[in-house]
């Protein structure tokens, strides 16, 4: 199984991504979960991460709190998408498992140093603040990372928080720039692919039909997400952005993309946080990321539903 650290700002779709990982021990070994400010402020994201571990009956997983604001900007949150708590939808009990004492940035550094090079994968599902801080504080860890598989950015689909920027990158463009310039192999799940992983009514019914606390909670979470999305975008299903990351670790063949150059806009007010993806390779800039463009959505939902059924 692949050893991973999930860096996250739950978020209903983060929650589903975490549940999929925790349900798949033969493929994914979750070393720890680090929380970052993003969809909602840090006190809520670290709490939500623990709530999800307990929902999955995996209270032994260490949850670490990280940065409470982006590197050089004020925090932008997304309660308009995820609700006031970040996990609106199901009525979940407050967690009783403890938050770890170590700061998430130190946990990431210590964990990479403690493992052989090329054996730990980082899975960022929110703004890249914790990862960039760890790289700045301990540059020696960069060459130890096996891969970064992240949700963020967009190319043809442009933006969801501004006309040109996707939320995770927009919240901390400086951090994203550090990560994309790090030289670490990156797999990027942009809106272009996540907007193909839509929870249609039959897919939501399949979650609910699991008839387990996890299946029902996931159905309620995606119900909440969907209601929002229909009002705002007229789309017919909740996009499961972050689960694309953990599904890719289990079944990479469900996805396809291109190895290309990606740069992050950090200067222009108008296009701040835009991921400039050289999809057609019109520059000679070196490729630094595999940008995923397509997913076998039926295969993705079959895998997700089957795995969630184990919890
Ligand atoms: C990303 O932003 C958050 O709202 C979601 O959790 C996802 O990580 C989508 O733009
Ligand atoms: Ca997220």
Characterise the protein shown here.
InterPro entries: I/U_nuclsd_hydro_CS, Inosine/uridine_hydrolase_dom, IUNH, Ribo_hydro-like. It comes from Shimia litoralis. It holds the Pfam family IU_nuc_hydro. This protein has 311 residues and is of the alpha/beta class. 37% of the residues lie in helices and 18% in strands. It has an 8-stranded mixed beta sheet with strand order 3-2-1-4-5-6-12-9, sandwiched between helices. The protein has a two-stranded antiparallel ribbon with strand order 7-8. Helix 9 runs antiparallel to helix 10. The longest helix is centred in the C-terminal third of the chain and has 21 residues. It is globular. The relative contact order is 0.16. The model has no long low-confidence stretch (mean pLDDT 96). The protein binds beta-D-ribofuranose and calcium ion. Beta-D-ribofuranose (BDR) binds next to helix 1 and helix 6.
């Amino acid at each position: 199984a692949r050893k991973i650290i999930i860096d996250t700002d739950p978020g209903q779709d983060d929650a589903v991504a975490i549940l999929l990982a925790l349900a798949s021990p033969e493929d994914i070994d979750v070393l720890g979960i680090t929380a970052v400010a993003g969809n909602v402020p840090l006190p809520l994201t670290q709490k939500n991460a623990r709530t999800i571990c307990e929902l999955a009956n995996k209270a032994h997983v260490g949850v670490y709190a990280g940065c409470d604001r982006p590197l050089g900007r004020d925090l932008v949150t997304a309660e308009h998408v995820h609700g006031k708590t970040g996990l609106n939808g199901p009525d979940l009990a407050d967690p009783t498992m403890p938050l770890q004492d170590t700061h998430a940035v130190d946990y990431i550094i210590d964990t990479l140093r403690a493992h052989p090079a090329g054996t730990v994968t980082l899975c960022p599902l929110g703004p890249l603040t914790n990862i960039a801080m760890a790289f700045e504080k301990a540059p020696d860890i960069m060459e130890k990372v096996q891969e970064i598989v992240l949700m963020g950015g967009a190319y043809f689909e442009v933006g969801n928080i501004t006309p040109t920027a996707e939320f995770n990158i927009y919240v901390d463009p400086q951090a994203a720039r550090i990560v994309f310039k790090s030289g670490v192999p990156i797999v990027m799940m942009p809106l272009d692919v996540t907007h193909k992983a839509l929870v249609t009514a039959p897919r939501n019914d399949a979650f609910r039909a699991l008839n387990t606390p996890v299946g029902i909670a996931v159905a309620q979470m995606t119900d909440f997400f969907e209601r929002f999305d229909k009002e705002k975008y007229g789309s017919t299903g909740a996009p499961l952005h972050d689960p694309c990351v953990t599904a890719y670790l289990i079944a990479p063949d469900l996805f396809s993309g291109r190895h290309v150059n990606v740069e992050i806009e950090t200067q222009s007010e108008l296009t701040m946080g835009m991921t400039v993806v050289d999809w057609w390779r019109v520059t000679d800039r070196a490729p630094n990321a595999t940008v995923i463009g397509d997913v076998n959505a039926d295969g993705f939902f079959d895998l997700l539903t089957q795995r969630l059924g184990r919890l």
